Amino acid sequence: MFTPDPIPRPNGPPASSTPLADYLSEEHHGVDQAYAVLPRSLAESMPLPWQQHMRDLLAEFHQAFGHLRWPVYRVVPTRYERLVDLDEEQLAEVGCTMEVGDTGELEYRSRDGATIENPEQQHVLVPCLDPIPRRGGGAS
Prior knowledge:
The protein is α+β, with helices and mostly antiparallel strands and 140 residues long. It has 4 helices and 4 strands, in the order H-H-H-E-H-E-E-E.
């Protein structure tokens, strides 16, 4: 028999039509505006049921988008550092130089030669050693 009582509504906000985008727009390790990176060593160390689900999801993903021309992706571990804390080699890696200006003060310049204003407040991504252990132990 049908009840005359109204159907109870679930508590909380309505379900999103973009749950993955919503989740990835929050601050999470390995996620930026364009990419979500999953360290392989961590994925391969997940519990077996998780690995099976992940394999199935990735297989469906690759089946759906395998026809696209994919570039080869190179993931480099990086961390934010203050520009003024970098040595010459690190400055070169991020496309900057440091020189003594006409006033005797240090001047930082970008690749195109423009002076970088307030270099002590500028943060840049600098390659670093990967802190995530690889399969077989040890950081790379």
